[in-house]
Amino acid sequence: MSELSAQVRRWVRPEIQDLVGYKVADPGDAIKLDAMESPWPWPGDLRDEWLNRLSEVALNRYPDPNCGDLKKVVREVFEVPACAELLLGNGSDELIQLINLAIAGHGRTVMAPAPSFAMYRVIATLSGSEFVEIDLADDYGLDLAAMQAAVGKHQPAVTYVAHPNNPTGNGLDLDEISSLALSTEGVVVVDEAYYAYADSSFLPRLLDHPNVLLLRTLSKVGLAGLRVGVLIAHPEWVEQLEKCRLPYNVGVLAQVSAKFALEHRQQLDEAIKRVLGERSRLAEELRHMPVVERVLPSETNFITFRLKAIPASRAYKHLLAEGVLVKSLDGSHPRLSNCLRVTVGTPQENDLFLGALSGLSAGDY
Fold it and tell me: Which N-terminal residues, if any, form the signal peptide (predicted)?
């Protein structure tokens, strides 16, 4: 071991050394159907108008530290209750980090169902918290009794629930989320990253639960490159979280671009409708494939499915060789054994994916 390696091992916290970092696959020339991005860019005329708006930005000045103009549009578009407050971040990930810094930390516990969003564990570890997972029920909904028992045992400072859930895709029962919030003295964070594709939202109930914070993001509706996340909560929570937010955390180009996009949200809404249509078609096609054992119900812009007779690792490599990048979930959690996750793409992209997958048969392996 070199002197530098020894120094790194001495000073980097042991839990960080043991942590496996979040990895993003390089798509190369493959169609990218692994990251839940919207497949449709803005039309050309709208892009030109957006570029004109950006040309007026003074890049030599810091951005609005409070994102005031963007917050006004977000509040209108999301129909945020008047008594709730907003906090914007560099994607939802930063907001999760702020929550853990302010509320969790050393000596406190962060809890989440499993399987769920991988960054809950990663960010809890970064903040020095103990992380506890409670398996989802057989239908991938909350196991409310197990969650409430874990609340009594671990007294979590923060509990995360994703509605709809990633990576399974299903929505959660809002009454069960309410019951969970009532059963804990800690904070419950309802992560609605896929709100635009879901059948329900916890937002109308938010103010009835003082200990609930709600997260949304613009990443899944066509603005992944901007990295804009939204936290909605009672003002008292936001006042404290603001103390942990670094100044100017949302850049001026992101603020201006997000405001422009939300002012032209009919384009975003049209893309969402197309995704919903393709999601239905994709799910139906997958259900009739001999190599597919189960298609999980989805209220998101992706579909998770389990293969039969063919190892997911082999199917993943086959699809990549055919020019389609998906996400292999096999090995991430026992409930996701032999599962792949595919983002809903354009009709042409979906056809290529389906064609490549249909080229597989159990006899090949």
Answer: none
Identify the bridge partners of residue 231 per DSSP, sorted by sequence position: 87, 215
For 201-217, the pLDDT digits (tens) are 999 999 999 999 999 99
Q: What is the pTM for the complete model shown?
A: 0.93
Q: 3-42+267-358 has which CATH code?
A: 3.90.1150.10
DSSP H or E stretch at residue 304:
strand 302-307
| CATH fold for the domain made of 61-263 | Aspartate Aminotransferase; domain 2 (3.40.640)
- Residue ranges per structural domain of the chain: 3-42+267-358, 61-263
Q: Annotate 152-188 with b (16+ C-beta within 10 A) or e (fewer).
A: eebebbbbbbbbbbbbbbbbbeeebbbebbeebebbb
The answer to whether the beta carbons of residues 87 and 238 sit under 8 Å apart is yes
For residues 76-95, give the mean pLDDT: 96
pLDDT at 359 over 90: no
